[in-house]
Design goal:
Elements lengths: L2 E7 L3 E8 L5 E2 L7 E3 L2 E4 L2 E4 L1 H8 L5 E2 L2 H4 L6 H17 L1
Antiparallel strand pairs: 1-2, 2-3, 2-4, 5-6, 5-7
Length: 95
């Protein structure tokens, strides 16, 4: 089976789409959604991406990151790659 995964990144959201066997793209639903808020929480070995991280960010948690494109110059730039990799691993483990 051939398939393609598309990751769309905007200022506030990352969305996942898939295409299989030449069909049109469909939402790739991982943990009940294909759109995930672009927020991160990192502390020790804890890595959270999405709504929980957004809640921590707006609660002024110093280990929560938002405004990704404003802080991308910092070592935080690896966070987006890590988040996308985690989401795709969740998808691939299901199949």
């Amino acid at each position: 089976m051939n398939f393609c995964v598309l990751v769309k990144v905007s200022r506030r959201i990352v969305s996942f789409w898939y295409q299989s066997e030449g069909s049109s793209y469909n939402p790739l639903v991982i943990k009940e959604a294909n759109e995930i808020p672009l927020f991160f929480y990192v502390s020790g070995n804890d890595f959270i991406f999405g709504e929980s991280a957004r809640d921590r960010f707006f609660s002024n948690d110093p280990n929560a990151y938002g405004n990704y494109f404003e802080i991308i110059k910092d070592p935080v730039n690896i966070l987006l790659f890590q988040a996308i990799r985690n989401q795709l691993n969740n998808f691939l483990l299901r199949y």
